[in-house]
Amino acid sequence: MGLRRSDLEAHPIIQFQRWFEQATGARAGGRLRKFFIGVYKSIFMLGGGPPVDVNAMTLATSDNHGRPSARVVLLKGVDERGFIFFTNYESRKAQELTENPQAALVFYWPDLERQVCVAGQVSRLAREESEAYFITRPRGSRLAAWASKQSETVRDRAALEEKWKQLEKQYPGQEVPMPPYWGGYVLSPDRIEFWQGRANRLHDRFRYTKNPDKSWQIERLSP
Ligand SMILES: Cc1cc2nc3c(=O)[nH]c(=O)nc-3n(C[C@H](O)[C@H](O)[C@H](O)COP(=O)(O)O)c2cc1C
């Protein structure tokens, strides 16, 4: 399956949404889709294969000496502002984003032989928007956000579990507020590349680059 210039949307976010929907199989729609997801899951359980996180993306950041670091986070939204993810604002990635707000993302969807590479500037979401997402998370995940000083050393596993148990008692009901050091980021892209694998390594690559007038230039790149 190739990628032609005439297949591309004028706006890279719309193009991304199309590819993302294809990666999640959302196009199959409604009941039929649920049925196929059920079949797919049971095949995976039988085969013991890994669950597929199509919204998993590698986030690369760097400190103010230009030293890079990368890790996987989950895409939790994409809109006209860009790509949204949530994390701990005191983590290593957050400290690096404070030093240098330029970051990159990579998605890889092996079933479709597709890769999407994104680069741009990252900014924090408003607290209310992060809270609106936080309350949708399972209680255990909300407690974990309090229990974990993300990216810091911890004495041992028992210390982590003890903290979690204390928090469970402290917040017995469903009410677990969002920690002040937790929230979302949006990466606003200025460059997005769509990569489609092809035979003989003659892959198709198209790069969208944002112009000063905010329109997008599209160019084919050599594989
Ligand atoms: C599939 C997957 C999804 C993850 N999603 C997130 C996420 O959405 N937010 C997050 O903070 N960490 C997530 N993590 C953990 C990060 O990879 C990382 O360990 C953590 O954020 C600390 O990174 P840092 O020390 O570089 O800041 C995820 C890990 C995996 C493997």
What does this protein look like?
Helices cover 31% and strands 32% of the residues. The chain contains six helices and nine strands. Strands 1, 2, 3, 4, 5, 6, 7, 8 and 9 form a nine-stranded antiparallel sheet that branches. It is elongated and about 60 Å long. Flavin mononucleotide binds next to strand 2, strand 4 and helix 3. The site of flavin mononucleotide has 16 residues, from strand 2, strand 4 and helix 3.
Ions, cofactors and other ligands present here are: flavin mononucleotide
Global shape:
elongated
Mean of pLDDT: 91
Structural class: alpha+beta
Give the helix/strand layout:
Elements: H1 12-24, H2 30-47, E1 56-62, E2 68-74, E3 77-79, E4 82-88, H3 92-99, E5 102-109, E6 114-124, H4 127-134, H5 139-147, H6 157-170, E7 182-196, E8 204-210, E9 216-221
Antiparallel strand pairs: 1-2, 1-5, 3-4, 4-7, 5-6, 6-7, 7-8, 8-9
The structure holds flavin mononucleotide.
